[in-house]
Design brief:
2 domains, Rossmann fold, four-stranded parallel β-sheet, alpha/beta, globular, 310 residues, 15% strand, six-stranded parallel β-sheet
């Protein structure tokens, strides 16, 4: 591995990794209806912990369930908490708080009832996102189509600002799409592209005047914001959850409170330096920075565990 670590990735059989791949399920159960999701999850987690003696550290990205195995083994477990899907799962994290190690993905997503070894923002492979210094052609919504993501609000902003809106993403709430989004699709002023893959991503993001991210929930981390800024596209967003940790207001985008302020931000967004968006991602949200942060945490945990054994 480039980091110097010997890594075994426990994931589906079609995953791509430069480490060693261990798979009990050939494909994601969302893509193979013959697979029972709960059975696949149980087999997947048990495979990791039955082989725990082979590893110095287990890094868990699989939410709270693997923690219930953690006291049955000697290998330390680091859990990155990718947001809380519900307050009802917090008791599991609290039970294993003293013996486990938690990383938050943003300061905003931290629970005051838990202890954390670090906050580590996500990082992206910047080489896969191409910078565009143009002025942009349209406003963009990029993400899952769901009421809490603010697609309808993005349409309102685009209409009031007199700008074209391009929508890209998976339809997660079909009723919302059909009632609040689809009636406005005309292929001209409001266009829906569907799901955008890696081959098209930079082009769609880079040709936008701005990304509209008008969410109605406390978002743990907005990865689409970082991807847009990597292409030079500033972001106009409601300041919910982690958003103020990602956007530098007035430099890489604008943090607004309502639709009216978003419309006003559209009028001045071209005054921002698109290269500043790219530079900020390179400094704060690169894959290299993220790996470095986790390497530091790995060393701290192993040192801590060693001192407990003395």
């Amino acid at each position: 591995m480039q980091s110097g670590l010997d890594v075994t990735l426990f994931a589906t059989g079609d995953s791509k990794t430069s480490g060693k791949l261990a798979a009990v399920c050939p494909r994601p159960y969302s893509e193979d209806l013959s697979v029972n999701p709960k059975v696949a999850e149980c087999l997947h987690i048990s495979e990791v912990f039955e082989r725990s003696a082979e590893f110095d550290l287990i890094h868990n990205h699989f939410d709270f369930l693997p923690l219930t195995y953690s006291l049955l083994i000697d290998t330390p477990v680091l859990t990155t908490i990718h947001g809380f899907s519900s307050p009802t799962i917090l008791p599991v994290y609290k039970k294993y708080n003293a013996g486990g190690h938690y990383v938050a993905i943003s300061e905003a997503d931290k629970s005051p009832e838990l202890d954390y070894v670090a906050t580590i923002h996500h990082g992206i492979d910047i080489s896969k996102f191409h910078f565009s210094g143009g002025k942009g052609e349209y406003l963009l919504f990029f993400g899952r189509i769901h009421p809490e993501k603010g697609v309808h609000e993005a349409i309102q902003v685009a209409q009031r600002a007199g700008k074209k809106l391009v929508i890209a993403g998976i339809v997660q709430d079909r009723e919302y799409f059909e009632s609040r989004v689809e009636p406005y699709l005309d292929g001209d002023r409001v266009e829906y592209l569907g799901v955008i893959g890696p081959a098209q991503r930079s082009d769609v993001l880079g040709r936008a005047v701005a990304l509209l991210h008008l969410i109605s929930f406390e978002e743990p981390f907005g990865l689409s914001l970082v991807e847009a800024m990597a292409c030079g596209t500033p972001v106009i967003a409601f300041g919910r959850g982690s958003i103020p940790e990602i956007i530098m207001d007035g430099k890489t985008g604008f943090i607004v409170e309502d639709v009216e302020q978003a419309v006003q931000a559209v009028a001045k967004v071209r005054s921002l330096d698109r290269s500043a968006c790219r530079e900020d991602v390179e400094q704060r949200f690169s894959q290299t920075r993220m790996v470095s942060d986790y390497m530091r945490v790995y060393r701290e945990i192993l040192k801590m565990e060693a001192s407990h054994e003395e």
